Amino acid sequence: MLWSWDELRKLSIEDRLRLIETIWESIEEDRAPTEISDELKQELHARWAEHLRDPSKAIDWEFLRRSYRLEP
Whole-model pTM? Predict the structure, then answer.
């Protein structure tokens, strides 16, 4: 069943929220599990070990947000 935007807008807020929830649940049900390759797992472990050796090399999230203008 396809609905036009105008038809959807006529639904109550409660019904629209229920529709969103139903759609979201269907996406979760249909989504295939994400597989992480062994190579990526090794890279993540190596990066984590490097961080544990010297946490001072980590980049502060606030600095990163400002640098890339990711502010809300």
Answer: 0.44
